[in-house]
Amino acid sequence: MLFELRLTDDQSFVEHRDTCTRIDHSSVRSVRVEGGDLWPVVAFRKSGLIYACLPLVEEALEPRPSLLTIPGLSQGLALLFGILDYISPSRKNEAELSAKAGQLRTLIIQACPLGTPLNTNISSLSSSFDDIQVVPTDVKQPAWRSNTYKGKPQVNVCITEKVKCMQYDKRDVVDMWQVYGTVNCKCDIEGAAPNVTLTLNLPTNGSPLQDIFVHHCVTSIDPAMLMSSSVNPLDDSVYSGPYKFPFIPPSESFNLCYYTSQVPVPPILGCYQLIEEGSQLKITVNLKLHESIKNSFEYCEARMPFFNRGPIAHLEYKVSYGQLDLSREKSLLVWVIGQKFPKSSEVSLTGTVTFGDIGEEHPTDYVCTGNTAYVKMYFRIPDFTLTGCYVDQHSVQIFAPGKPKITASRELISSDYYIWNSEASAPTMYKSLYY
Amino acid sequence: MGTYQLCLHGDPLSPHLPDTHSPLPQMDLLLLLLESPRELCGGPGGVPAVCGALLELLTLPHTPPGPPRALLLLATVTILLAAGMEGSLGVAPFVALLLQEAEGVKQGGAPAAAAECLRELLRARGPGDPPRMLPPGARRSLLGRLAVASAVQPLVLLLAEDPDESCHTAGADPGASPGTAALTAAGPGEPRITAGLSLSGSQCTTSLDPLDPPDTVLTEPGDPRATASLDPGDPLCIAPLDSEGPHGTALRDPGIFFHDTLPDPKDPRATVPLDSRGLDDRAPRDPREPHGTPPPPRRLLTHSFLLTPAAQAQLLWVLRGSEGPSLSSSPVLNQLLPTAEPALLHATLWGSQGGLCPVPATLQHRLASLAQHPALHPSLRLFFLFCLGTPPVPPLPSHLAASLFPTSADPPELLLPHFELAAAACSGRGDEGERGSCWLQALMMGLAAGGGPPGVFCRALVAFSKHLGGSGNPPAELAAAATALLLRCPHFAPQILEAAGGAGEWRRALGTALRQGVLGAPLPQNEGGLRGYLRVLAQAPGPPWPKACSRYLRHLAAQGGVCSDWRGGQGVLSAAAPLLPHGAPPLTPQTIGGGDLDVSDRAGLHAALITALGPPKLVTILAAPPLHVPPPRVIAEGGGSALSLRSVLPPFRLHRLPVPAPPLPPPFGAPLDPWGYGRAVARGGARGGLQLCLHLEPHHVPSPPHLQVLALLLQVGGAQGRLVRLGPGGADLGLTLRPSRTPPPVLPVSAVFSSLGGAAAVTSLPPLPLPVVAQLRPLAIPPPWDAPRRRRMFDAMWETLAGGPESRVVWEGAHPPASLTPFVLDEGGEDRGWVVAASLPPRGLALLWGREGCVDMRCQRWGALIPLAQLLRGEA
């Protein structure tokens, strides 16, 4: 598998793996083993781990059947994503990760006791084997819900919006930014199948939500919501609400829905100039917080990595606000802006950098060659969304006895927020040429 | 759980059981049984005994409830299936036990696990196997269980998979247990079948057990009792969900599970309209459903909302071929389409009847949206994209295709599939496609200019050529970008060349640009650069430019540096070889290789061949012959000075001789040895390598044909040898193999040879067995392990192989043979002796223990002992 994924030390050209005629259109691979090829191996990488499984193919293998005729393909994929959802929250804590990996064995036996996946939501399974011997006592109780909570009803909702951005500060290249959100819920409610309805609200000038998809526990949604999509920008099928989601909540925390949105401006506008002058680089970074954005960050920093170069040997700089740090590896500058932009909403950095001789330990990158370089922004703004989307606590309806306690929160987090050097080429994301 | 004792002394499980009987080891043992059933049973012979032990445990009156019981059931089924015993007669009591447990009759049972076991057992039997069907009456009992809890997933799947038509056939079921009904399906004019619990009257043919589900009755056509309502006080009368609630009524209707005994729609005797059934009339009806009660599969489908997505998807696939359910007209579709569950959408797309969901427009739109949704993992997005681009899904409409165009900021694993989909979408779409093609070309140039890993550009170029086929010359910018990429990343030359070679009409121009780029670039200063440049000169499409390239190679050879050793010299000679037939002058032995004997030899060979044969015949001699030679036939023939190349039966045999290698041959150019004797080298140049001594023996002794073997190819990462002449006594050949990976036990071999008259032929030789030492691989032992620890590991492995293949060879030396040095775990001392352990593909270990004048060997297969003994005796 390591060989197939090109993770071995030997990077030489191997025709069947590296041939240019091969484009992987799915995560399915053929792995050579003694005695033949294993196929179809579903495998992908995430955070340094390889997730792989071998779905059962019940039809003849010669000639190879079309992948989409194999039910196990998507079921295997779903199982792997169930494992990923279970593992990934612990990926930074080694002890927790190995404890979870140890639990996986029993959980997978419950998820697919005899090979047929019955529940791929690994996080919802307990290690007590209850899920393979307990039968719901109520006809209305879904299989994906346990009926163990006793107490006052509580609902916790959190909207997390992430913003992606590619800014170039060039006339002939269009900037791109995109917002996508996740609504996470935890509903502690008694009963076999309590009904809950949650409504997402937008302010009058809010950006409509698009590309909405929901958790399988949602019982119905407005068809217009289903068709509100970003895939056709000329389409006038924009749906601006109400975004009403009736559902029977699972017992554990779950993502009720995901969406995207096209907001009119990026939260932070930036300009990055990097020019090579002799043996040194001159850098200039200007950042401006848009006036509509809440100026209250949990953290905000701009990182400037330098690839395919040696360590930073000399640095002279001037910042109008915040502080600049040099990473231990001496290949990254971190400009810590802090919790607030100044009153002017603008900050700047100028400086010169010189580099030592490059060694094998220094980071390399195929994109950032020559003067192609970027600033990557990292920030989080609590109690704020770029679309304006929020949950009115009074709009949450619970069809269960007792007065519920509703807690709602929201946040905006940066995700792949790049500001490219305007003095060199850069990868672009704009697609309007074809439209 | 406290009274539960899995350990049965005297049974095959006993050796594996811990001394303590705490629940944890018992659970662990059951888990192990689930994972490695055959191994824990001690082979096929142990299966019946283990099964018997487990069954005995299951039938004990005090077997504990809960997880251990569920695991016991699962372990038993696993062993049965692993041993292929699911169809044996002895399984019948176990099936009966599973049925009882799945029905929920048994207190403290594990009904869900039992149902899953039952499903897997029945599923494992072939469709033509009569025992596949559930016993008459059992199905209805199981349905009753579903009436209590609709979301018992294994039950739903079991019932969907096993349509138990026996319930619909005429005649009572003599084996039916008390409380189950035996029914006769109604024919035309015969009593109707309906369902109900509280009906009374002579038509009721079933006796009701308090634990039994609602049963069926026979009524006359038009009988008002057919619409009688269920007794609200009956525990089996499940109130439906509140139809006024926010969820509507579409998704839950427990009454569906009561209709197991309805007639098969295909059965001519079963003409009763389904909507005339009493119970169904009482069940809440979905306003979106058409009038008339759908058949049971449809109802299973409708209530699948209560299942997990995995089980619901499984159900959709199971129902795919069944009569009745049509996903496209089911309200369930409205619940499936808004989700991003891969299994559900896959089943929706492909699992519906007819293979394709008849709502492709909506589904296409959803899939296109999911294929680029930033909240999803790239592998998931890739899956949805794959669904979109795979026939028979219709071609994408323009607006969807446009939305899926890649950008240079996409990760490579997404960029390429998007690129190919876009290229395919642009094909044959007029101006719209032309604009898209321009966009893709611009993207390719961006990739070549450093917008991503070089391999991405190469693959994109091949995909572009495949779908949009460049005509005429490629844009100058594209050729320049490809050349710049080559010069920047010469180690990607194989991919760049492959891309250029697959670029249709552009291939010649691209090849020329690449070759020009190399000739105009500074000489490479490292091995990677040298290898890449040489490959381009030798393999780029288009005219070879023999003079310019030869000049460049001479310049390169004269430079020394990276060309002054074995690898560099061989590389330059390989690049020069294809130029020789085009009239390029050969490199002289004195100017290349820095004095390396192999390089000088090969340069001399080139020079001698030019002199002896002339350039035209060198085309086939210097080009690598195919390893798998077709059956003897004439490949190409010509007259006069043209070359005749035939594939013929081999006129000689190849044997492997024991080491040591024969003495070195005379320098090239020295008088030929009439007994034929030469030397060979292997490409690759890794240090060390596998020494082989070969002997070529002519078939027709004592008057063999005069032959000159020009090339010998062994399929082990490339190895070439040559002999100058094959005389009556044959010829010996010393060969060093430097395989880049584990060689196979036998090597396919082919040879190119020529008669002294000039006729050249290619032939396949019988496969060449390799010495066992070539197949040994060191064990993966952590480097920090010291000798005592390695010794302990060896001792453990030695004990493990006791009783298996074992042999002893006399050995006088105090140390192992030099060829085994890499595998020594402990050199030991006089008292303990040395030990060697290695992996010996295709399976198993090879362990050697040298002590007191002998070497003991243990392996996992008998066939390995003989070559190991030969190795020790110096015969291999």
From TrEMBL, chain A:
The keyword Transport applies. It comes from the Eukaryota. It is a peripheral membrane protein. It is found in: Cytoplasm, Cytosol; Late endosome membrane; Lysosome membrane. One of its GO terms (cellular component) is AP-type membrane coat adaptor complex. GO terms for biological process: endosomal transport; protein transport. InterPro entries: AP2_Mu_C_sf, AP5M1, MHD. CDD domains: AP_MuD_MHD. It holds the Pfam family Adap_comp_sub. Residues 152-421 form the MHD domain. Keywords: Cytoplasm, Endosome, Lysosome, Membrane, Protein transport, Transport. Probably part of the adaptor protein complex 5 (AP-5) a tetramer composed of AP5B1, AP5M1, AP5S1 and AP5Z1. Belongs to the adaptor complexes medium subunit family. This is AP-5 complex subunit mu-1. It comes from Pavo cristatus. The lineage of its organism: Eukaryota, Metazoa, Chordata, Craniata, Vertebrata.
UniProtKB/TrEMBL annotation, chain B:
Residues 277-291 have a biased composition (Basic and acidic residues). Residues 174-191 have a biased composition (Low complexity). Residues 300-618 form the AP5B1 middle domain. It holds the Pfam family AP5B1_middle. Residues 166-298 are annotated as: Disordered. Residues 197-208 have a biased composition (Polar residues). This is AP5B1 middle domain-containing protein. It comes from Pavo cristatus (Indian peafowl).
